[in-house]
Amino acid sequence: MGRFRYPLLLALALFVVGLALTATLKDRHYILLSLVLLAVALFPLFMRLERRPIESRELVLLAVLSAVAAVSRIPFAALPSVKPVSAIVILSAYVFGAEAGFIIGAVVALVSNLYFGQGPWTPWQMFAWGMVGLTAGWLRNTWWMKRRAGLLVFGWIWGFLFGWIMNIWYLIGLPDAFSWGLVAATYASSFYFDLAHALSNVFFLSILAGGWIKVLQRFRKKYGLLQQDGK
Asked: What whole-number distance in Å separates Cα of residue 136 and Cα of residue 159?
């Protein structure tokens, strides 16, 4: 993960700085500016991936995992925030690493929204799910991520972090977007949706982790796939 750490830190720094600059503006072009800021924040990550040689069989694997994660949203469309997407992204990153996790997380939002509908929220979902995969791959070799309880806690935490990131795009489209009262009301109203996402992450990780990890690890070892950023 060492080679991917600095693009990750740079992307997060650009995102935070850009968000702070947005809060100082007095006009209302928040949505357009937010898309530009997200593109700037994601640029170092995509540049790192562009410079990394990827074999065709690795691209096929990433495409299949992204498609599986994207399709998994559809059966749960009637249940807001309940979906196995984050769990699949986490498990894929756990086995194949941070780069694969970021790609799968970013692509799943773009592809699944062909069904659910594209909009200004799509880049934010790409960023949020990309960060889910990126951090899961980054931390996969830590002692607590190697334990089932640690993996479940990770999924629980990201259930809330994902919602908090998505709240930003909602806030920037509102008048007085950065007033503390509106921010507090928005995050309070999203609590139950974030809780549902966190609980669903724990549920799907608990039932998928054992089988998925074994199968994906078998593919990784047998075909030598996506092992450059960690063992």
From this structure: 13
Kindly state the tokens that stand for 51.
């410079």
Please, are residues 18 and 40 in contact by the beta-carbon 8 Å criterion?
yes
State the number of CA atoms in the 13 A half-sphere of 220 facing the CB: 21
Question: 96 near 217, Cβ under 8 Å?
Answer: no
| Residue 174 CB neighbour total at 10 angstroms | 13
Give burial (CB, 10 Å; 0-12/13-18/19+) of 115.
Answer: exposed
The structure tokens 């908090």 sit at 164
Which amino acid is residue 46, in one-letter code? F
**pLDDT digit string, tens, across residues 154-188:** 999 999 999 998 888 777 766 665 677 788 888 99
Alpha-carbon distance of 92 to 107, in angstroms, equals 13
* CA torsion angle 79 85 88 89 (round to 10): -150
Is pTM beyond 0.85? Reply is no
Residue 147, burial from CB neighbour count under 10 angstroms (0-12, 13-18, 19+): exposed
